[in-house]
Design brief:
binds phosphoenolpyruvate; single chain; alpha/beta; binds magnesium ion; TIM Barrel; 22 helices; 8-stranded parallel beta barrel; 3 domains
Length: 602
């Protein structure tokens, strides 16, 4: 028996068998130099790998059935690419000039080709970048003896164990069969963690050594609440956890019951006892989630992460985007929908982008930078969003704005997109509101300037904390440093809210912090106007807000802004909460995780 400790991402106890996701990460591709005499040997490895990849593709093509189906055509195109003499020529030429191992040569040739294609003005050619990446990944996997398993249709219940499950993999996996997730990388606010939370799959992440320690078929206990994974449990522990599992089932039923109780709040305003009214909205990743929001009392969507549409399909045409956005807008029946333009890059890569290796992806080609560098793609999205605004209330929001120039470039392209829609007679909301996400220190410090050109702000605390404290949100080794109660973070939040209010625009928050009960009084006291979060958290936050008075939240905020350390601020918040609440307040951001009720109140 072995106990592995990580970060609790989604609570719940699961006992089951491990399914290890084989590593096919590009960052893991071996790279070494070879001697001129070894060139022939490397080419001799390349040829059977290509044959094996071709056999795999032929099988896939056959199982797609109809040769004229989209899938059939894709596999056919991949087969043609595998046999392309120019591709083979480039591999051979580079091998003979660089003297490096064949896996690395295939990776580099494919990366250069993908980069060229991605920069093309022609949408068809840009789409081919994804195919080049896919084909090269298949060859490299064959060279390394890795058989990528499909997570789409699993035959039995599993606990998925991965070094780093990509958001696109999480999106496409068989959610009925994946009972729990165990992952070596990631923090509570990594995109994969956000996704599995919305799926309700118990998860422990940031384990560092799970892939090394666990083998396929091993019996595992995942304790999502404690952030523990128990490998090969002994009989006593298994028995103890079987009881905990049954208890957890009861807890789930209780949570459902609590949710039902809280849904009685659905139509009541999020208003404090002394009349401060705020707005509670939901964050969504995929259009299908929109239909569910009403029962949680969401007053709109504060963040629609539109990039997931692309991650799901590899690409999305203007019409496909319009269809998805309109579906969301119609489901909201007049309540506002804030569509964020794609935040691709970082840990959210399209297949074509996986081949574009960056040393620091989180400081690299991401979000608005990605969109501005591919104006055709950006304009297509802007037109689709504008057109969906004819169906209801839509707002646009730009991610990762670093300064006024970037914002003005995005706004200029939006004006272009509006002109195109007018020319084509496509109706849209001429008064559409445009917001700026505040996610990095540069945006905070220039918030007064950005406010001049923004209709609203939305604070993305997942990134703001990452960039303020220089803590990679996907790196488990430093996740303990990602403290929302760091004085720098709370002062920044206050500064953004004040800059918005000085210009008469609302300040929203759509990072995970907005749904944290323990921090809500502080945010409320600082003057935040809108909280956008996972829909399931809305009733809890609403109940809390309705039990608070704004005047004392303001005093709490003022006092915490005078303190010098996370510890002092957390102690103040803990004390403040203990004095007021009967029901324990759970928190991902305040140390101690659970704030126990005080003795007098209990
Ligand atoms: C954030 O950074 O807080 C945010 C909401 O955006 P994302 O999590 O998608 O980066
Ligand atoms: Mg962000």
């Amino acid at each position: 028996m072995k106990i592995l400790s990580g970060i609790s991402a989604v609570a719940g106890v699961v006992i089951g068998k491990a399914l290890l996701l084989p590593e096919d990460d590009y960052r893991e591709i071996p790279r070494y130099t070879i001697s001129p005499g070894e060139v022939t040997g490397e080419l001799e490895r390349f040829v059977p790998a290509v044959q094996e990849a071709a056999a795999e593709l032929r099988n896939l093509k056959e199982s797609a059935g109809d040769m004229n189906s989209e899938q059939g055509k894709i596999f056919e195109a991949h087969l043609l690419m595998l046999e392309d003499p120019d591709f083979h020529y480039q591999i051979k030429a580079r091998l003979e000039s660089k003297y490096e191992n064949i896996e690395w040569i295939v990776f580099e040739v494919a990366r250069d080709l993908s980069q060229k294609l991605l920069q093309s003005d022609d949408a068809y050619l840009r789409e081919r970048a994804a195919d080049v990446a896919d084909v090269s990944r298949r060859i490299i996997n064959c060279l390394r003896g890795i058989n990528r398993i499909s997570l789409k249709n699993l035959e039995e219940d599993v606990i998925l164990v991965a070094r780093n499950l990509l958001p696109s993999d999480a999106l496409g996996m068989d959610k009925k069969r994946v009972k729990a997730l165990v992952m070596d990388m990631g923090s509570r606010v990594s995109h994969t963690a956000i996704l599995v939370r919305s799926f309700g799959i118990p998860s422990v992440i940031g384990l560092s050594s799970a892939v090394r320690e666990i083998s396929n078929g091993d019996t595992l206990i995942v304790d999502g609440e404690a952030g523990k994974v128990i490998l090969d449990p002994d009989r006593a522990v298994l028995k103890q956890y079987e009881t905990k599992y049954r208890q957890d089932e009861k807890n789930r039923a209780n949570r459902r019951h609590l949710a039902e109780e809280l849904s009685a709040l659905q139509d009541l305003p999020a208003e404090t006892s002394d009349g401060r009214r705020v707005v509670l909205k939901a964050n969504i990743e995929i259009a299908e989630e929109a239909a569910e929001l009403g029962r949680y009392g969401a007053e709109g969507i504060g963040l629609y992460r539109s990039e997931f549409l692309f991650l799901q399909n590899g690409q999305a045409s203007e019409e496909q985007q319009l269809e998805a956005y309109s579906r969301v807008v119609k489901a909201l029946e007049g309540r506002p929908v804030t569509i964020r333009t794609v935040d691709l890059g970082g840990d959210k890569l399209l297949p074509g982008m996986q081949a574009v290796k960056e040393e620091n992806p989180l400081l690299g080609w991401r979000a608005i930078r990605f969109s501005l560098s591919l104006p055709d793609l950006f304009m297509t999205q802007l037109r689709a969003i504008l057109r969906s605004s004819a169906e209801g209330t839509v707002k646009i929001m730009f991610p990762m704005i670093s300064g006024i120039e970037e914002l003005e470039m995005a706004l200029a392209l939006l004006e272009e997109a509006k002109k195109e829609c007018r020319r084509k007679g496509q109706p849209f909301d001429e008064e559409i509101k445009v917001g700026t996400m505040i996610e990095m220190p540069a945006a905070v410090v220039t918030a007064d300037i950005l406010a001049e050109r923004s209709d609203f702000f939305s604070i993305g605390t997942n990134d703001l904390i990452q960039y303020t404290l220089a803590v990679d949100r996907g790196n488990e080794k430093v996740s303990y440093l990602a403290q929302a109660t760091h004085p720098a973070v709370i002062r920044f939040i206050k500064q953004v809210i004040d800059s918005a209010h000085a210009r008469g625009i609302p300040a929203a928050m759509c990072g995970e912090l907005a749904g944290d009960s323990a921090v809500a009084p502080l945010l409320l006291g600082m003057g935040l106007d809108e909280f956008s979060m996972t829909a399931q958290s809305i009733p809890r936050i609403k109940e809390l807000i309705r039990s608070l008075d704004f005047a004392s939240c303001k005093i709490l905020a003022e006092e915490s802004l005078t303190l010098s350390s996370c510890k002092e601020i957390q102690a103040l918040v803990n004390r403040w909460l203990k004095e007021r609440f009967l029901r324990p307040v759970t928190s991902d951001f305040i140390a101690g995780d659970t704030v126990e009720p005080s003795d007098e109140n209990a």
